[in-house]
Amino acid sequence: MEETKQLTLSEIPTGERCMIVKVHGHGGFRHRILELGFVRGEIVSVLKNAPLRDPVEYEIMGTHVSLRHSEAARIDVVSLSKDAHPDLTQDFHGTLEEHVRQEVEQLGKEITVALVGNPNCGKTSFFNYATGMREKVGNYSGVTVDSKVGTFHHRGFTINLVDLPGTYSLTEFSPDELYVRDFLDNHDLDLVLNIVNAGNLERNMLLTTQLIDRNHPMVMALNMYDELEKSGDRLDHQALGQLLGFPVVPVIARTGWGIENVLEAIVQVYEGKAKETKHIHINYGSEMESAIEQLKILLNETEGLRNHYHPRYLALKLIAGDQTVWQQVAHLSNADEIRKAAEQYRKNFEKEYDEDITSVISDLRFGFIRGALSETLVPAQKKEKQQLGYALDKVLTNRWMGFPILFCFLFIMFEVTFVLGAYPQDWLETGIGWLGEWCRSVLPAGIFADLLVDGVLAGAGAVLVFLPQILILFLFISILEDTGYMARAAFIMDKLMHRMGLHGKSFIPYIIGFGCSVPAVLAARTLENPRDRILTILTVPFISCSARLPVYMLLVAAFFPHHQALILLSIYLIGLVFAILTSLLLSKVHFKQQANPFVMELPPYRVPTLRNAAIHTWDKTSEWLKRVSTVVLLASVIIWALGYFPRLTSNSDSGMKKEQLEQSYLGKIGHAIEPAFRPLGMEWRAGVSLIAGASAKEVIASSMAVLYGVEDTDDNQEQSMAVKLQSVRDADGRQVYSPIAAYAMMLFILLYFPCISTLATIRQEIGKGWMWFSAIYNTMLAWLVSFAFYQIASLF
Ligand code: GDP
Ligand code: MG
Fold this sequence. Notes:
By secondary structure, this protein is α/β, with parallel strands linked by helices. The protein is built from 34 helices and 13 strands. It has a six-stranded mixed β-sheet, with helices on both faces. α22 packs parallel to α33 (756-766). The protein is elongated. Residues 117, 119-125, 137-139, 143-144, 166, 223-224, 226-227, 252-254 line the site of guanosine-5'-diphosphate.
C-alpha cells in the first residue's frame, strides 16, 4: 500500500487547482460526492478554503460546490500547482496537467479488497488461486488467525487482497467477528468481496445482509458453484445481483473457474461501471425503520461520524445494543440522548416481540434473505427443513391460490367491518340522537342550542358514530401487518404490479392506505427508486382511506341495503384500478425507464398477540380521533355557521329550515357551484360537502349530516340519514338521489382531491410540483369518471 502520505482536497489552499484521485468513505457519502462531479481525473479549483472554517468552496465542471472540511478530507487529490512538482522545470509548463493525469492514473489503479465470508466458504482457496500464494487450506474454522495480504495485477490494476478470518456475523460475540469488524472500520478499503457458499445460501447470506447495512461497495462470489449444480438447485445469479445491488458471480475457488469474472466485477464496481450497482436498504418493518430514522437524525446532529460510517448501520447497531458501536459514538456531544433513545427503542422491541433484540433483528434479516431467494432460487427438491413458515408460504404465495386467498381476506375484512361494526354504530347513533334531544330540552332555544345540536352533534357526531368500524378496520390492518401476511400480499402482487409499471412493495402502502393516506405515503419510503416512490405516492390517494368510509356507508346503507359489502368492495377495487391505470399512464408518459427489481422481504410469521394488536390499533385510531375532534369539528361548525347566517327574519325561531339554508351564505355558495356537480347527479348540498371535504374526508359525511339533517318539516327528526337522502326532491319534485347518483357520488369521493394532510405529506416527500399534480389530476379524473358513469348509467 501507499508509502507517502496522500494529499487530500481539504489541504489544497485557496486559488489552487488539483486533480481527483479517489473518493473514500461509505456508500451514501460517496454517492453524493460522486454525483456532485468529484470523480477520478476531474479538475477542481479551490475558490475559498479557510483552515478550520466550514464550508470550503470549490469549482468543478463549471459549477460551484461547497463541501465541509471533513468531507473534503475524504477525497484524495494530486496538486496542479507547479510548486508541488519541483522535479518539473519551468519549460514543462504546457504539460503539467498531462503529467499529473498520468500520476493520477497510476495512483487510482490500486484496489484494496477484503475477503469476508463464513468459515469454510472457500476464502483461502480463493485467495490462493487469485494471488498465486500457497496459504494453508484447512477444513476447520479459525485457520486464518490473522489477515493475510496478497498483491497481484489484473488488467493494469493492482489488487491488494486481504484474507480475513471467517465469521458468521458481524456482531461482537467472538474475537473473530470483532477482528473483522475492526478491520472493516479502520482500514481504507475500496471494496468488500463477500464469499458465500452457494450450497448454503440462506445461512451464508446473514453476513451479507450485515455488509449491506454497512454499505460497502461490494461484489459477491458464489463459491462452490459445482456443489450447487450437483444438488440440482437452480439459481438466477444475475437476478439476485440486481436485487442486492452488486454483482453476484459464480466461482469454483478450488479449480479457479470463474475467478477471472470476479476480478472483472471488482474492477467494474471500483470504476463505478457495474450495471447492478445500487444502494439498497433492508427493510426492517415500519417500527424498526422509524426508530432508525429517529436515531439517524440524532447521529447526524454532529459532524464527522457520518463520513466514516453509514448512519443507518450505526442506528441499527445502537438499537441492537452493540457496545462496540456505542464506544464509537460515546464522544458525541449528544451521546446521552442517543443512548437513552436507543435503549428505549430496544426495550420496546423486546417487549413487543417477547424476544431479545438480536434474534428479532436476525429474524428480520432472514425475512429479507427468504424474499430474495424465493425470487431467484429454485430448489431441486423439497428440503427437509420444511418448517411451518415454509409450508405456509407455499400456500399463501402460491401462484394459483395466493390471489383468491388474498381477496378472501380483504372481503372478510370489509364484511366484518360492515356487519359487526353496524351494531355498536347503531348504539352510538341512538346515544348521540338522545344526547341531542336532551340538549334541546335543557338548553334555552337559540343560537347556542342550535350550534351544539345541529352543528357539533350532527356534524362531528355523524363521523364519530363510525368509531367502531374504524377500530375494526385498523385492527384488521394491524393484524395483517403483525402476522407477516402483509409482506406475502405484496409478494404475490409483485408480478402483477410490475406489469402495471408499479412494484409489489407498493401494495403495502396501498393496504395501509385503507386506513389513512398519510402513513401510506410515508410507507412508500421503503421504495428507494425515486420513480417507484413517486408512482406509489401519487396513486395512494386512490385507495379509499377510512375517512371516506362514513360517507360511503351513509350512501350504501341508503341506496344499496342488500349488497353493502359488495358495493363497498367494488369501490375499493375501482380505486385500485385507477391507481394502476394512473401509474401505467405516468410510466408511459413521464417515467420511461423500467421498474427496478427489489427484494420483497418475507419476515417470519408471527402469532399476533392481543396486546400488540391493541397497541397498534389504538395508535392508528387515536390519530383518527384527534382529527375528528379538531378538523372535523371545526369544519362542521363552519358549515353550520355558513348555513345559519344570515338569519331569515320571519323564521328565526325554529332552527335551520330549508328556506333559511337556501338564502344563507352556504346556500349562495352552493348554488354558485351547483352547475359543476349537477351533471354528476348531485345537488348543491352534496357539492358543498365535497368542497368542505377537502380539509379532511370525514368532513364530507359530517357536512352532509348537517346539511341534509334539515328538511321541509320539523316532524321527521327521527328519520335516518338514509330516508332523508332518499326524500330529497329537485325543483320539479323528482327524487334527486338514485342508486346511480349515489354510486357516481362515491366514485367522485373515491378519486377527487386528496385531503390537505395528504397533500402536505406528498409535498414533503416528493415536492410541490407533484403535490399540485396530485390535486389537479385527481379532481379532474374524479369529475370525468363520475360524469361518464352517471350519464351512461342513466341511459339504462
Ligand atoms: P475458508 O475457511 O473460507 O478459508 O475456506 P477454505 O479455503 O479453507 O476451504 C474450505 C474447504 O472448502 C476446503 O476443503 C476447500 O477445498 C473446499 N472448497 C473451497 N472452494 C471450493 C469449491 O469451489 N468447490 C468445492 N467443492 N469445494 C471447495
Ligand atoms: Mg481460511
